[in-house]
Amino acid sequence: MKGADFADLDGRQIRVGLDVGGTKIDAVAVSPSGEILGRLRRPTGWGDDAVVESIVLAVSALVEETGFAVSDIGSVGIGIPGLVDADTGRVLHAVNLGVESLDLAVRAQQALGVPFRIENDVKAAALGAAVLRGVTGSMAYLNLGTGVAAGIVMDGQIWRGARGTAGEVGHISVDPNGRLCGCGQRGCVETFCGGGALSRAWGRPGALPVKDIFDAADAGDETALALRADLYHGAAAAVRVLVLSADVETVIIGGGLTALGERLELGIRASLRADAETSAFMRSLHLEERIELLASGSPAAAFGAALVGASVTEKEIVSHG
Ligand SMILES: [Zn+2]
């Protein structure tokens, strides 16, 4: 694609979205009509300076590869783990990036000369999943990765709650006698279905511990069978919590564990069905019909970040008259 193709943008500009993870950045360029024009992945740096630099490099590479100019970019949105102040663009406690406190929006904006907006990665992914899957009304995005978190979208808007913790279902305790969670409680949803917690409970070396657990369960290993059952039970509990607390119509499941594909989906569905068989109330909720799995490698998080960048910009234009 050549830069000339963007000459008729007529003031409506390219939106760039970046999903910044612990090891890689997933970057997309989105047209004014919402079409993904280009996508690439780059490694993420460690620590404040390297994180900023890797973000700037990712945007530059995306510009070059997709064939438009930095001046065609209307906004860049970033989804990033950790505590995010969406108003100031500051990121706090992003431990897997080596960041304690970083004025990310200000520093990236200085480097590239385009407006940056920052959002928590799971909240951005929730928005992206809602738009990509054409969900209107209410939905929750349940991210099953190293940790477990969810984002809630109501009528096209991210729902944060009073202090930004809406959707933190990973730390709802569902077993007071369960495994100790990193947050200090016992039996959190995350201790059942978070990849990190399952990997620690499994305790055997391997690059893909959750896949190893599934393979060992298929071979009849009792520890693996119990951990796989925990995963299904925990994910089903998260779905139940999201529907019972926010009454979202749809729960879209994404995150690294979706690489397990049907092995994950069928188990979660079976767990929801088992709940429905023993409870008329659960049966009345039709939970199994309300879940969807994103395909592994979905651009939802980066796409959602692009929407975050664009939406905040529009709001600012309105408020400044
Ligand atoms: Zn916890």
From TrEMBL:
Q: Which domain of life is it from?
A: Bacteria
Molecular function per GO: N-acylmannosamine kinase activity
InterPro entries registered for this protein in UniProt: ATPase_NBD, ROK
Q: What is its EC number?
A: 2.7.1.60
Name the residues that span the membrane.
Answer: none
Matching PANTHER family? BIFUNCTIONAL UDP-N-ACETYLGLUCOSAMINE 2-EPIMERASE_N-ACETYLMANNOSAMINE KINASE, ROK (REPRESSOR, ORF, KINASE) FAMILY
Its protein name is: N-acetylmannosamine kinase
Organism of derivation = Microbacterium oxydans
